[in-house]
Design a protein that fits this description.
The complex is a heterodimer of chains A (about 325) and B (about 375).
Chain A: H1 2-46, H2 50-55, H3 68-75, H4 87-117, H5 123-135, H6 142-163, H7 172-197, H8 201-209, H9 214-222, H10 227-243, H11 246-252, H12 260-268, H13 277-312
Chain B: E1 4-13, E2 16-26, E3 31-35, H1 42-50, E4 57-62, E5 65-66, E6 77-80, H2 92-102, H3 107-121, H4 136-148, E7 154-158, H5 166-183, E8 186-191, H6 194-200, E9 203-208, E10 211-216, H7 218-223, H8 228-233, E11 240-247, E12 254-257, E13 265-268, E14 282-287, E15 292-293, E16 305-317, E17 321-328, E18 331-338, E19 348-354, E20 359-361
Parallel strand pairs in B: 3-8, 3-9, 6-7, 7-8
Antiparallel strand pairs in B: 1-2, 1-4, 4-5, 9-10, 11-12, 11-14, 12-13, 14-20, 15-19, 16-17, 16-19, 17-18
Helix pairs in contact in B: 2-3, 2-4, 3-4
Classes of the chains: A mainly alpha (about 325), B alpha+beta (about 375).
Chain lengths: ~325, ~375
Amino acid sequence: MSAVVSSSASGRSAGARTLTRVVIYGLLAFFAIVYLMPLFVMLVTSFKTMDEIQNGNMLSLPTSPTVEPWYKAWGQACVGLTCAGIKGYFWNSTKMVVPAVIISTLLGALNGYVLTKWRFRGHTLVFALMLFACFIPFQSVLLPMATILGSLGRFGVTLQNATGFSFGFGNPTVNLVFVHVVYGLGFTTLFFRNFYEAFPTELVKAAQVDGAGFFQIFRRIMLPNSLPIIVVTVIYQFTNIWNDFLFASAYAGTGESMPMTVALNNVVNTSTGVVEYNVNMAAAMIAAMPTLLVYILAGRYFVRGLMAGAVKG
Amino acid sequence: MAFLEISSLRKRFGALEILKGINLELEKGGFLVLVGPSGCGKSTLLNTIAGLESITEGDIRIDGRTISDLHPSKRDIAMVFQSYALYPNMTVAGNISFGMEMRGVAADERKKAIDKVAKVLQISHLLDRKPSQLSGGQRQRVAMGRALVRDPKLFLFDEPLSNLDAKLRVDMRIEIKRLHQATGTSIVYVTHDQIEAMTLATKIAVMRDGEVQQFGTPSEIYNNPANLFVADFMGSPAMNLVTATIAGGGNDLHVSLARPGADPLRLPVPQMNGLASYAGREVVFGIRPEALTDPDGADRNARSVVEGDCLIDVVEPAGSDTFAVTKLGGKEVVARLRADARIATGQTARLAFNLDKAVFFDPQSQRRIA
């Protein structure tokens, strides 16, 4: 009797479990498709000819795949009046993103190191103020920042007149690096402070007894043992800065040093002639490529590093 | 002049006083153990010697030179940390030579020093490994190697054995003692384990609440505890401390211990300084388990051994000894008997009190009377 009851109960629960599974996986699959659909459309469109786009279905696979739009996007697409493709702007972005990521990550690490291992009076207040930077809407600082960049630019002109070299003051790329470093510091400091909070202080003491100074401890002991949080910070900063459109369009929206995101916008908004959807899609794919690559290469560390910081901190 | 001198050292965090006027001295080649319960300030004291914590008042001198204001690396000390604090990103060789590297010692000289220390500690085969690939005992050796390679004036050990399992702890304890005897260096060693303190030290400082309760050789601390705290803290099993009454006077001065189901046990006490003035008053009578034994096992060299009958509550055969628990002065008292002593639970047995080793404390001030 009891055996019958228990077996029927387990049979029912097994059936219920299967149903739950179906619902869960069904929902996951549905949303995955919804999210991946634009990517799919972009990908297939970028390999189609204009004829096929104008006459065919948006979702259908290309009948005669071509990489011509990719070449065109890279080397010939028109941004405003110059038609030299987006490759120059791709390098503009790279030149801006790499220093911005490196500097903001290093400064964040240094801040975290000081806030945990070299505590001073009021260190919690300083940290709280830095956290504040994470919550300031970027739109609200556009004008003040423009004023500051303007003064830096005038200072650059003065330097140029006095020494014959501007030291980068007033250069739009340098300006963007500066802006991104300043606004990245809140996050990078938060990441590193939480990571170093759990970092054994005895190691720092041992290094002090061994005669290592402030920066020697930082370089030889702290940084080499911070790989997980460095990866997290680099991914986070790289993605944010590469994808940034607001600061890019506000402070380098025209001219030679325009970053990728602004250039892409201008490619798509070109009002002359036929809209070349395949070229636009290819350009958008190229613009998204670096962040995708960073995720694929280092994503494993991203999850692990976020957890390490969150749980131990 | 002593090699290490700590004089009226105070350490305050705001209003909180962690160290309340510490005075200690250590001769050259000595082994000073700071022992006490957690929170007594022993680790803070060690950190002030290392220079990792600043001091509020007082002075620390090594070899006649004041070091209170020097950076840790300039004090000519080396420290072994509780967690070993090995740099995870460096090999064993890198860990040992990091300090030399920071001081700018040439590479070939570093190599020679590493090899020498590795040989002494038998870790030559581990030099290329990372700390994560080492066992607990090996890490401990590397941590000691890092200290040894500096050849400092003073070694500081911060509970170095507390992370090891019991067997390894005994092995490493012997190893540290051997190392100390072989190299003749001066050591300050922090522990909460009173056995480590007894076995390693040439001088022990028993600490509580930021004060040194007693400072002396291990035998002084063990045999002549200055107060109740030291008597209770040092020794395992702990000293029996029971309430007793001093009675009589002159040549008949005795201590009276209540026992269940019989008249109080009367033990004659010699005319010791101060004890006579406690006649008719309560005192705390202290006797170590090994001074309370079966008559055949009693110390034949003792001047004053008195026997008394005691009702045995519990018998604990421990192999090498047999421990018997009886009730005296309303408290359980442990006696340590020979392994084959004939004794049974619930029966009265004759126990010998070695009164040479008995100590008396004032219950109010907790200080030693005699």
